[in-house]
């Protein structure tokens, strides 16, 4: 899961991204983003409407999958961006991980948030950070 320093707090900041942000549409989601000079790190939100799927279990599964892919892909992000993923379909809950990762990383690359080489790195799937 993504760290709390990279999460949105409150609806006001999401509203700002919705109103002022740029949009990149993909086959399963839309990426809204804007550079935020007031912060030092990026923030990410994944929005899955009840219209996408009736069950909260499926909506949460979609959120978890997208958060994990974004967490792995944005380790190289150095600029403070506000990023919001708006999911269109419930197919994301059951599609292969490689296909979903490719679609999400492609949107991040088109936005210029991550570079093509940095997003393609294979990172270990560690849930907890190893102790030093």
The computed structural class is alpha+beta
CATH structural fold name: Ribosomal Protein S5, domain 2
Number of helices: 4
Largest beta sheet: what is the strand line-up? 1-2-4-3
CATH architect. name:
2-Layer Sandwich
The profile of the biggest β sheet is: 4 strands, mixed
How widely separated are the two ends? 20 Å
Q: Work out the oligomeric state of the chains in this entry.
A: single chain
Q: Taking Cα atoms only, what radius of gyration do you get, to the nearest Å?
A: 14 Å
Question: How many beta-strand runs?
Answer: 4
Could you name the CATH class?
Answer: Alpha Beta
Give the number of domains.
1
DSSP helix fraction: 25-40%
**Which whole number gives the mean pLDDT?**
84
The fraction of residues assigned to DSSP E strands is: 15-25%
Which residue ranges are poorly predicted, with pLDDT under 50 across at least 5 consecutive positions? none
Order of helices and strands: HEEEHEHH
Q: What characteristic shape results from the CA principal axes?
A: globular
Question: What brief labels describe this structure?
Answer:
alpha+beta; 4 strands; four-stranded mixed beta sheet; Ribosomal Protein S5, domain 2; 4 helices
General description of the model:
- The longest helix has 18 residues, at 56-73.
- A four-stranded mixed β-sheet has the order 1-2-4-3, with helices on both faces.
- It has a single domain (4-111), classed as Ribosomal Protein S5, domain 2, CATH 3.30.230.10.
- With 132 residues, it is α+β, with helices and mostly antiparallel strands.
- Helix 2 (56-73) packs across helix 3.
- The chain has helices at residues 12-20, 56-73, 97-111, 116-119, and strands at 22-25, 29-35, 43-47, 81-87.
- Helices cover 35% and strands 17% of the residues.
- The chain starts with 11 loop residues before the first helix and ends in a 13-residue tail after the last helix.
- The protein is built from four helices and four strands.
């Amino acid at each position: 899961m993504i760290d709390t320093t990279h999460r949105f707090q409150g609806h006001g900041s999401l509203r700002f991204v919705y109103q002022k942000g740029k949009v990149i549409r993909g086959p399963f989601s839309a990426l809204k983003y804007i550079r935020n000079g007031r912060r030092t790190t990026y923030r990410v939100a994944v929005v899955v409407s009840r219209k996408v799927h009736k069950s909260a279990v499926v909506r949460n599964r979609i959120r978890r999958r997208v958060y994990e892919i974004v967490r792995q892909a944005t380790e190289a992000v150095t600029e403070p961006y506000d990023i919001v993923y708006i999911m269109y379909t419930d197919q994301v809950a059951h599609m292969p991980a490689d296909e979903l990762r490719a679609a999400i990383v492609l949107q991040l690359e088109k936005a210029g948030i991550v570079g093509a080489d940095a997003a393609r790195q294979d990172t270990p799937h560690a849930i907890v950070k190893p102790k030093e």
